[in-house]
């Protein structure tokens, strides 16, 4: 049981290290964007109440295995979930977005996003989705990022209440050089090759 506890702790630490290693991503943005903080806190809260861990740290009498097993299961699920979110999101993608997040006045404002394709031989089409279509407008919604090239998005915020929990989701698919319509590949229901999330903060 102690070995399981150590393995779970190691998994959490490796995920955290992976996050810290990616310098261009702000800790606050990641926590806010992927909602991993509640999972980690809940898991650790239960984990550090585990009798087995207390026994290992403070030499107290351990309770039976069956009483501490549920706590470890909860921690395992929480850490595996957060680790998958870290791995899938922090993995390098051929297209990057700059700036990585948008801050605009809640009263109204606009911002430009630049999409840069580092793949020298792969052309991508993209589709932009928003968690708040009532207060945000994006142009274009569909488009291409040429191989080794760049594209631009214009994001407009309409007047409304402050909000810091919205985001843009930019879906990407590789396409042939002669594909004329960026919308068509998404109409087939194909899963995107990767997705970039851009937090939207209106104050």
From TrEMBL:
Give one Pfam family, short name only. Answer: Motile_Sperm
- Which residues are the signal sequence here? 1-17
Entry-linked InterPro entries:
Ig-like_fold, MSP_dom, PapD-like_sf, Sperm-specific_class_P
Q: Does the keyword Cytoplasm apply?
A: yes
Tell me which domain of life the UniProt entry assigns to the organism this sequence originates from.
Answer: Eukaryota
Extract the PROSITE patterns matched here.
MSP (PS50202)
Keywords of the record, alphabetical order, are: Cytoplasm, Cytoskeleton, Signal
Residues covered by the MSP domain = 89-203
Its annotated function is as follows: Central component in molecular interactions underlying sperm crawling. Forms an extensive filament system that extends from sperm villipoda, along the leading edge of the pseudopod.
Q: What is this protein called?
A: Major sperm protein
List the source organism.
Answer: Meloidogyne enterolobii
